[in-house]
Amino acid sequence: MLLSHLLWRAGIENVVIEQRSREYVEARVRAGVIEQGTSDLLRSLGLGSRMDREGFVHEGVTISNNRSPFRVDFKHLVDRVVMVYGQTEIQKDLYDSGVGAGWPIVFEAEDVQLHAVTEGQPFVSYNVGGEAATIEADYLAGCDGFHGVSRHAIPSDVKREYERLYPFGWMGVLSETPPVSHELIYSRHPRGFALCSMRNPMLSRYYIQCVADTDAASWTDQQFWDELRRRIPDEAASSMVIGPSIEKSVTPLRSYVAEPMQWGNLYLAGDAAHIVPPTGAKGLNLAFSDVYYLAEALSQRYSNGSTTALEDYGAKALRRVWKAVRFSWWMTTMLHTFHDAGDFEHRMQETELDYLAGSVAAQTAMAENYTGLPF
Ligand code: DHB
User: Is the C-beta atom of 88 inside 6 A of ligand 1?
Assistant: First the structure.
């Protein structure tokens, strides 16, 4: 949807083909941290007013090691901040504005297939409500997520995949309770990682590390709250207001990158090409920088005929992708309990956190990455 916006603004006709319904997309709970560059981009497109009204600027986060907390002050260290605003809310703002402008968005498209990707005239076929349809285009943007069809159009002898599966998941709970802290708390604890986040003053979002294939329904709310409170600093645990969960789900953790991000006239963006574990909330932010580069490249192609930026798209996007993959992997590795880790790995993890707690240089590097590398 963001790519569609950027293209329409550049006068480039495009159609969004979405497998799901608008209601489905708008009901999905996603992460809630927006990098400075992402919020700046939304504002520059006139899409930032609800975010600025309803979102919350966060100037730092708390990191806790074994229930002992320290703060990383982004504003002070790098003069940049993040915005806490549900990524689902951004999706709603993009739909409101795109649908309002009358831009074509096909919802509930089934059996989407890409054709003639490496030939002069690629096209997409799909069914909507039992009717077959095709759309011819100069270019296809594969923004269809990790489970989408686009990436599979790249032949396996060309595609190179890099993957790290983590031996645990996150159980997330949304509850209509006041957040335990005005900033996020990322907690490392021998029982497992925990994260205290929020959406607004009466909506909290909490996560705990769990066994990868845990069935969320097998955990009662009380079990979740008890486990969460064991892993976070005492002060937070004792002041936490608990209540019924309004959503409870388990997410697997994975790092994944497919190269190249371009094949013929197909350009991959976002989760279609790469996945990061949620630690650090980089997924949507990374999709934003991909499509920003792609929109710039397509704008050049249609304004002066130059395809140089399109040819460079994959390499340029991947340089930033790999840095976010590194950061998400670093945060995940530093903060989670790896049950198969040996004594040496435990000491390394303790030392990483001790170094971060005491070093302005280490905190600056974290702040620079957490608030988002430039794009
Ligand atoms: C949230 C999710 C994250 O993965 C994260 O690092 C921070 C916040 C969230 O859902 O609020």
Answer: no
